[in-house]
Amino acid sequence: MSDERKLSYGQAFNEAVSQMMEADPDVFCAGEDIGAFGGVFGTFLGLQAKFGEHRVVDTPISEQAIVGLGVGASVTGLRPIVDLMFMDFICVALDQIVNQAAKLKYMFGGEASLPMTITTAGGGGLSAAAQHSQSLEALLCHIPGLKVVMPSNPYDMKGLMISCIKDNNPTVMIKHKRLLGMSAVVPTEAYEIPLGKGNILRPGTDVTIVAYARMANEALIAAAELAKEGIECEIIDPRTLQPLDTDLIVDSAKKTNRVVVVHEAVRFGGLGGEIASQIQELAFDYLDAPVTRIGAPFSPVPFSPALEQHYIPDAKTILAGVREIMQRNVIRG
Amino acid sequence: MSTEFIMPKLGLTMEEGTILEWLVEDGAEITAGMPVLRIETDKVESDVESPASGRFHRLGTQGEAYPCGALIGYLLADGEEIPVSKSPTSATPAVTASPTSSPSPTSAPVTSVQRQGRQFASPNARRVAEELGIDINTVIGTGPDGRVVSEDVEEAHKNPQALRVVAVSAVATVAPIMSSNGNILATAAARQLADLLGIDLSQVPYDAQDGRITKDGVATYVRSRLSVPSPSTTPATPTVQQSAFAPASQTPSSIKKISGMRGTIAKRMHSSLQEMAQLTLHMDADFDAIVKDRDDRKGAGGTASLPGFTDYIIAATARALKLHPIVNSQVTAQGIAVLPEIHVSLAVALDEGLIVPVIKNTTSLDLSSLASETKRLSGAARDGKLTLSELEGGTFSVSTLGMFGVDGFTPVINPPNTAILGVGRLRDDVVVNANGKVSTVKRMTLSLTWDHRVFDGAPAAEFCKSIVDLLADPSALNK
């Protein structure tokens, strides 16, 4: 296979799981309809045929039980991948995630380890309505003991998923539903992208845009447009939201003096507030403008496609935000 | 509570005082009523007493002048510390450090524009300004809401001259910006303030940032019109505008500060000439009758109350003022105020300047009493013992240079008077009588300077003629 081989975001996920299951017999998957059906988004396609029913387990419809299974299996030595069909459903399993998975290593004095990966699908854009479209990453990032990952492209997806599986702590891999079909060159061999390390998607000098998952791609579109106006955006994709690569963001803020943070989640209480806060704490004297936060309005995700399109930030929203932060009333003649 | 000790205001016209001497040590315990320091004003020396008891902390420097109300010390209670960040405001203008990148010293001084109120600047702009040594208040902000951003500071650093010129022209542009319906664009607050103060908005520079007149703009305009700095924020006005002076062409052998009495004279004479329409006429007065009257008095004995020639002139002037009330006047905001009481003041030369004590109710005095009064006042003036009440309230001044051989000169009006009389030397003139006989006569030239805004040449000449007529009949001066 050549280096030019392209995979979709969903296939990159699938390949990462497959390669890790080949490499480590302790790795197994469990979730709703991931077996014969291959998952509701097809991300587990073909894995049960390849590894059998014992390693790719179809579970009953009980998110609490699915995550509980992962906690028990991981603490007793296996390396489970447990899938929650929609990110919205983590709410059903929050006791297992927050009170068990995230706490056990601490409560056992470090003696227990939970090499478990929770995979789920987040974000809107599919007209899946208010209970199947949310971006709840900020909830998870608030919990000490969890690592939260949100890749923005196929390459990052494979590398980050492998790192999640190999990590000896509970990790949450959030696939963005609208990126599943995104195609890009992905190496065939297994590789890791370290958790907690962000990525400069596009270098620039005038303004920093911090964006992850689908919003990183929207930021790239906006940046291309802004470059025509002479505004060079530096796009930082943190990739891992917890732990967050604060150094990378702060260094960029010091360089460009202006920062726009973008996420699909509701603006109020979103991760943008944390990032803006880190920047003002660590780079206050380098700011030429308040950090701009772009996020969804304080409302459930609408079902109507027209409303949903209006609700979710996109390249246009980012363009407007950047222009505003860059605004100067030049009066010199 | 620490008590602030300020430069007192001892009279209506006192604007600053010089600390001649501290009478208590720094840190001394003092009681209420204790003299703390001796100050010199434009007119007198005076001891200043403490209003309260406590430990005294000196702030002012001996020999320095401070505006009235300036903090010069503290009275502290037991265990109290001096409040921080207070320093006395000296009357001498502070030397403002010029920016490191200032234009070459030969170029004309450029006024920097200070925004009133809080200057909004991004944290990064403040950091960059500090690094580059730029005063952020001189930088025009182009960021959102007029905030100064780092690019503005960098541009100001690269091209300080250009920026400031733009800044000056931008803020000082007077041509008002009109709205589509022909109104001058101004904020509601600006309109309210302008209405309150009766300011014509078309005269007020607009804010280049806002594109309309702001409240700050109105305030700045009013301040510039008053040319009085706001007392709390600005250092005291320099006694004389110093910015326009050329440097000394030689190394000076000494420099005398234009402060204290010198400063007052400089300021008042300069503003007198600037503000009034002054002109001078000369008229001769025959003094034969006065010389005779004086010789008669001398013969009668008692030199103590023997009037001098100047006394005769003061007496004649006071009576002429009664006949010409318009001369005994003062220009006020309401108009020309004719003053009912006549208080002629007399310029007395001192080593370091001159002082003008007032002969109160001059017309009520006969020549002997007048003579004693002028003698007393000039003696007190030379001894520095005049009180402020003896220096205030003059309505007309008389100034004598005759003892130096001067005939005519152009005295400068002592504000707020509207006229002053200059007195020349007593001399012998050769005159030809009506019948062709040549004789000599004692004469003196009078120089009347008046404010043409108040009255014209003819009434001025008539007033002077009245003095001359009165001097011809000394008996009239004793009434």
Using a beta-carbon cutoff below 8 angstroms, give the protein chain pair with the largest interface and the number of residues from each chain.
A-B, 16 and 21 residues
Distance between the termini of chain A: 60 Å
Low-confidence stretches of chain B: 88-116, 162-175, 228-242
Low-confidence stretches of chain A: none
CATH fold name of the largest domain in chain A, please?
Answer: Rossmann fold
Which oligomeric state applies? heterodimer
Strand content of chain A: 15-25%
Decide which structural class fits the backbone of chain A. alpha/beta
> Helix and strand string of chain B, N-terminal first?
EEEEEEEEHHHHHHEHHEEEEEEHEEEH
In which range does the helix fraction of chain B lie? 25-40%
- Portion of residues in beta strands of chain B equals 15-25%
For the sheet with most strands of chain B, the description reads:
6 strands, mixed
CATH top level label of the largest domain in chain A: Alpha Beta
Described by the principal axes of the CA atoms, the overall outline of chain B is globular
Mean pLDDT of chain B comes to 80
Radius of gyration of chain B: 29 Å
Output the radius of gyration of chain A. 20 Å
Total domains of chain B, how many?
3
Beta strand count of chain B: 18
Give the H and E element order of chain A.
Answer: EHEHEHEHHEHEHEEEEHEEHEHEHH
CATH fold description of the largest domain in chain B: Chloramphenicol Acetyltransferase
